[in-house]
TrEMBL record:
Entry keyword set: Signal
Matches recorded under InterPro entries: Carb-sel_porin_OprB, OprB_sf
Annotated source species: Candidatus Litorirhabdus singularis
Gene3D superfamilies linked to this entry: Carbohydrate-selective porin OprB
One Pfam family named in its UniProt record: OprB
Cleavable signal peptide: 1-25
Family: Belongs to the OprB family.
Protein name, per record: Porin
Length: 409
């Protein structure tokens, strides 16, 4: 998968699959099928969320509405040097509920270094997160893409982390508050090579974009540069993946240049990937505020990580999943000066899919806060959505029936 296509389809799974039947939020499952068979794909979902922090006695609520699609503009015969040309897009709308606190306000009142969920909407917002073209080459060994994409839903993607509201809610797991490139959503390009058990891809993206298609910002020449390498050894019981990203950022949101490393692994075992263990660690250097009067522009964490386990289809229930993760975050220097110390925590969730279009995910977070007390955050996330994929023809010409093509195999 290229950077653009994976960014579009929101990383419910990329290198890995969780072994749970597809839900409203697992858009990437359907998107991967569509990319492998030349199908068109459309997913529409609505996800409301509510959380309550007991010690701080405050609550937050928000929703996100997503329309995600992939259309094959030009089909190519099997085994041709020039493959399919795809158009991919992702439109997102989000807002907080009524007079409730925003996610950022709740985390501040609770004395936490990171947000308790990945939708920090202060007011209503609608934006194009992804809009781009992807070209496959050399029997789908090489992909090239250009357009607007979302790096945080692309690199080191996993069925268990950064999974687009399909499981964990803490931003330490569903996002990455350590590195600035995670949310550098802007115009860029990438190229990737997909081997049998390994891949390498490089990308650059506008690191200062403020609008949907911010060509003026792109012309300023301030970019985030990323290089990713992954290795997936054979695993008959599921998926095993090891990967790392090294990066450099010229400048972002009045921050100095930044560089760093993010490493991640996942291993599944048992009957049809019944169990999984996964982890990620991030380290950055630089990224300090350019405004000496406002050091808070810098990210609150300088390094952090997670280590988790998942039980897919617990007790033989194919419509459920249980997972838990430990979380660790080391504050940046300016946060240390404010009195923050290293924070630890955990999150546990239970996912239940009673209908193909409905997912219910209660969760619990326990985190050591600013006052060295244990803050308890309980939450409920509900997903409602529909998806469709079809392959009658490409946009421009008919398609002859062909066997599904697995990317990189």
């Amino acid at each position: 998968m290229s950077v653009i296509s994976k960014g579009l389809f929101v990383a419910a799974t990329v290198l890995l699959t969780c072994g749970v039947p597809r839900t409203w939020a697992a858009q990437l499952d359907g998107a991967l099928d569509a990319l492998a068979t030349g199908e068109h794909y459309l997913n529409v979902s609505l996800v409301p969320l509510y959380q309550y922090a007991s010690r701080a006695d405050t609550d937050t609520g928000n929703y996100t509405f997503d329309v995600i699609g992939k259309f094959t503009l030009l089909d190519a015969p099997a085994r041709s040097a020039v493959g399919n040309t795809d158009l991919v897009f992702w439109v997102n709308s989000s807002d907080k509920f009524g007079g409730l606190d925003s996610t950022t306000e709740l985390s501040h009142k609770a004395g936490l270094l990171w947000d308790t969920n990945d939708i920090a909407a202060e007011s209503s917002s609608t934006t194009i997160l992804v809009l781009g073209l992807e070209q496959w080459l050399f029997q789908d060994r090489v992909s090239m893409g250009m357009g607007k994409f979302f790096p945080g839903q692309v690199f080191l993607s996993s069925a268990y982390t950064a999974d687009n509201s399909n499981g964990f809610t803490s931003k330490m797991i569903s996002g990455n508050p350590v590195v600035s490139w995670w949310e550098s959503i802007g115009i860029g390009a990438n190229a990737a090579y997909w081997g049998k058990h390994w891949s390498i891809q490089a990308a650059f993206v506008d690191s200062k974009a403020e609008q949907d298609l911010d060509f003026s910002s792109f012309a300023d020449g301030k970019y985030a540069y990323l290089l990713e390498s992954t290795y997936s050894p054979p695993n008959d019981d599921g998926d095993t993946a090891i990967g790392a990203v090294i990066y450099y950022i010229d400048e972002r949101e009045q921050r100095e240049s930044e560089s760093g490393v993010v490493a991640q692994f996942t291993h599944e075992w048992g009957d049809s990937a019944k169990y999984a263990v996964f982890g990620r660690y991030s380290f950055r250097d630089g990224g300090e505020s350019q405004n000496l009067d406002d050091p808070s522009i810098e990210a609150a964490l300088e390094q952090g990580g997670l280590l988790g386990v998942a039980w897919n289809r617990p007790f033989g229930r194919t419509d459920q999943q249980l997972a838990a993760s430990l979380i660790y975050g080391k504050p940046a220097d300016y946060r240390k000066q404010q009195g923050f110390d290293t924070q630890y925590g955990t999150e546990i969730f239970w996912k239940w899919q009673p209908r193909s279009w409905l997912t219910i995910i209660p969760n619990l977070q326990l985190t050591r806060n600013f006052e060295d007390n244990l803050e308890t955050v309980v939450g409920l996330r509900i997903g409602v959505g529909i998806e469709r994929n079809w392959a009658e023809s490409s946009v421009f010409r008919s398609v002859q029936a062909e066997p599904p093509r697995a990317k990189g195999n």
